[in-house]
């Protein structure tokens, strides 16, 4: 239930003030779920939900900056989503391209595109790579844009890159097997060099990862929000941070 506006604003300010800055997650992953269901709930076409969801990204990044977050990973399109109807997929990719280009144009965040771009139409892949290149020198919040992303695909890509690297160095499979370590995989993931996600937020009430950051999320905390992504509010974000800050993170120990 939404609080009346004056009470809501007061509650939001108090909630924000109560969060200890030192407890902020360094890396937040967000599964932007529920755009199509939101559109159905208001009697609109799926594209309307996708556009409203794309507009919400700017708010999320600003909230993350305010909270002291260093890395945000946005899951905008999964490998499974690529099987949608050609009409919806073409429209969705256009919305994603526009959203990512808009973020790049602000020159405020460093964008990194991650996913199987070879599965996307060439023009879409080129547009995403261009947005990434235009923000390569930006210092500030690092934003991973996961498009055509699947956790299993990422791990398979990492293994392929590892094998190619060692083959190029003349390492035999037997030699690689003797020295192989989990860090060899980590060094070839899309997120190499970044901290693993401390917190993953999924909207729309679904309580599953669906393959998001499979390797990186072994010690991640999860927060599932009932709101559809287009309805996700700052107070929902702050509640996620509050939940995270209240947890005792054992990190497997």
Radius of gyration: 19 Å
Tell me the name of the CATH homologous superfamily: Decaprenyl diphosphate synthase-like
Helix fraction, binned, reads 40-55%
Order of H and E elements: HEHHEHEHEHHHEEH
Major sheet characteristics? 6 strands, parallel
Shape: globular
Mean pLDDT: 93
β-sheet strand percentage: 5-15%
CATH architecture grouping: 3-Layer(aba) Sandwich
Poorly predicted regions: none
Say what the CATH topology is: Undecaprenyl pyrophosphate synthetase
Strands, count:
6
Supply the helix-strand structural class.
alpha/beta
For the terminal residues, how far apart are their CA atoms? 39 Å
CATH class: Alpha Beta
Across the major sheet, the strand order is 3-4-2-1-5-6
Number of domains: 1
In DSSP terms (H or I, runs of 4 or more residues), the helix count works out at: 9
Short description:
The protein is α/β, with parallel strands linked by helices and 253 residues long. It is built from 9 helices and 6 strands, in the order H-E-H-H-E-H-E-H-E-H-H-H-E-E-H. It has one domain: Decaprenyl diphosphate synthase-like (Undecaprenyl pyrophosphate synthetase), CATH 3.40.1180.
